[in-house]
């Protein structure tokens, strides 16, 4: 690698530096910024170049049929969403709290945890086997543990209020898959993307109280 000129990019060492990179705390060229953003560069949310890029990105759309990672066989209708707004809101708020408390998380951590849980529920519905695969990723496993506790508490509250729980395993699967599809709309798809996390943080800042379940649920958009 050629020696770096004081005016050269800190990444390629070839092109002239044009902008200050908050991820590297050094100056890089515009091309490396665009190519490495959220790929090798763990861009902080306040980076103006990241924010500018998001403004110009086309809205993500689902291909037809849905990719395998979004569980295309799972059908989710508007009536289902209306019925299960409280649980969906609870999951959204829980993910927001988790990502507020751990700023090292990325969209892929949420996607990995939810995918793991959805696969476990698919196995349960198909075979009756209660099997939760342990994630080798500690961050994803923490998310799984917290969401499983949320589901346990949700069923407990239902049972206390109604004398029984109406939440079925197939309903949980659909809620998990819906959340996965929702995340996929807002993430850039790059390895280090925080597009969805930042979207949620903008709605629910850490300094203020989160909206109630009903208010949050009413804002969920069907993918």
Arrangement of strands in the largest sheet: 1-2
Q: Write down the overall mean pLDDT.
A: 87
Number of domains: 2
| Helix count, DSSP H or I runs of 4 or more residues | 9
- Anisotropy-based shape: elongated
- Parts with pLDDT < 50 across at least 5 consecutive residues: 208-223
Note the run of SSEs as H and E: EEHHHHHHHHH
CA radius of gyration is 20 Å
Q: Can you give the helix content as a percent range?
A: 40-55%
| Strand tally | 2
Which structural class fits the helix and strand makeup?
Answer: mainly alpha
Strand content: under 5%
The profile of the biggest β sheet is:
2 strands, antiparallel
**Terminal residue distance:** 47 Å
Describe the structure.
The protein has 223 residues and is an all-alpha fold. It has 2 domains: 1-57, no CATH class; 63-218, no CATH class. 53% of the residues lie in helices and 3% in strands. The protein contains 9 helices and 2 strands, in the order ββααααααααα. It has helices spanning 30-36, 48-56, 78-83, 85-101, 107-127, 138-162, 169-186, 195-203, 213-218; strands at 19-21, 26-28. Strands 1-2 form a two-stranded antiparallel ribbon.
